[in-house]
Amino acid sequence: MRRILLILLLVAGCASPAWDDADYGKKAGATAEAAASSVALVRLAVENEARLTRPYLQTLLTETVTALDSVDSQFGAVQPPSEAAVAVRAEITELTSEAAEQVQVLLNEVRLREIRDPGKAAADLAELGDRLRSFAEEQPS
User: What's the pLDDT tens digit per position in 39-50?
Assistant: First the structure.
């Protein structure tokens, strides 16, 4: 829970305007890092699902979906300064939306009974986390 709050605080800086492509890229990179951290947290929870209580897992997944939606909307408030930035926006929005969707599916499974295939879910989350981190590394620092 503290980690999610930290992520939200870090991403709050993404709501400021982007003055150029480099600044926009930094904001996109921070957004990708925040989303990757959320995805990593969920992956760890899924890998250890058998050791977690169902209410705890539901709470963690609910808060993570909320955090990912917040990350996405914070970055969405930043206007792209160029056509190149529009492409960056499309890519990061697609990744963060995919992250929120994957976590929402897991939350639905937990609410109904249990995660159907924790191994596949963890692998999918790891792959998505890698894509988010790669995106972040490609952005200006």
Answer: 999 999 999 999
- Tell the residue number behind the tokens 């808060």, with chain if given: 63
Instruction: Give one DSSP letter per residue of 18-36, joined into a string.
Output: P-SHHHHHHHHHHHHHHHH
**How far apart are the C-alpha atoms of 43 and 141, rounded to whole Å?**
27
Contact criterion met (CB below 8 Å) for 49 and 98: no
Q: Can you read off the two tokens belonging to residue 117?
A: 């295939």
CA distance 126 to 107: 17
Sign of CA dihedral 40, 43, 47, 52: positive
The secondary structure of residue 78, as a DSSP letter, is S
3-state secondary structure of 38: helix
| pTM of the predicted structure, to 2 decimals | 0.86
